[in-house]
Amino acid sequence: MPIFISNRITLSDDEVDLSAVKASGPGGQHVNTSATAIHLRFDIRASSLPEVYKERLLALSDHRITDEGIVIIKSREHRSREMNRQGAIERLAILIRSVAEAPKKRRPTRPSKSARAKRVNAKVRRGDIKKMRGKVTH
C-alpha cells in the first residue's frame, strides 16, 4: 500500500524499511517478550521524492536524520505492532510534508530616519543625565 504524502507525491512500500523490535521500558508480562515497537528507516537520497524535497530534508537539523541522509523513526507508543507501524509512517509523512512549502525569503529592512533620530536623542538625554552625577561644588 503506497504512503500518501500529497496529491502528487506518494512513496511505495519498498522505499521504507520497517522492522519490529522489542519495546524497552516498564510493562507487563507481554511487553518484554513481544516485538511490538517499530523502527522505520527511510533513505532520502535513494527515494523517489522530488529533488527539492530531498535537498530541504537533508538541510534540516532534525535528530531523526543521520549524516548519511537516512531518516530513523522509532515508534513504541501503542501496544500493538500495527498501530506503531501506522504511527511511524504518519510521522514520516508529517516530516516530509513539513518541507513541502518553500521557506519565506527574508526581506532586509532598515530603521526609518525618525527612528534613528529618536534613538540618538535618547542616547543624548541619557548622557546629559549621567553628566549631572558629578560632585557638587559651591
UniProtKB/TrEMBL annotation:
<feature type="domain" description="Prokaryotic-type class I peptide chain release factors">
    <location>
        <begin position="9"/>
        <end position="133"/>
    </location>
</feature>
<dbReference type="InterPro" id="IPR000352">
    <property type="entry name" value="Pep_chain_release_fac_I"/>
</dbReference>
<dbReference type="InterPro" id="IPR045853">
    <property type="entry name" value="Pep_chain_release_fac_I_sf"/>
</dbReference>
<feature type="region of interest" description="Disordered">
    <location>
        <begin position="101"/>
        <end position="138"/>
    </location>
</feature>
<comment type="similarity">
    <text>Belongs to the prokaryotic/mitochondrial release factor family.</text>
</comment>
<dbReference type="Pfam" id="PF00472">
    <property type="entry name" value="RF-1"/>
</dbReference>
<dbReference type="GO" id="GO:0016787">
    <property type="term" value="F:hydrolase activity"/>
</dbReference>
<keyword id="KW-0378">Hydrolase</keyword>
<protein>
    <submittedName>
        <fullName>Aminoacyl-tRNA hydrolase</fullName>
    </submittedName>
</protein>
<feature type="compositionally biased region" description="Basic residues">
    <location>
        <begin position="104"/>
        <end position="124"/>
    </location>
</feature>
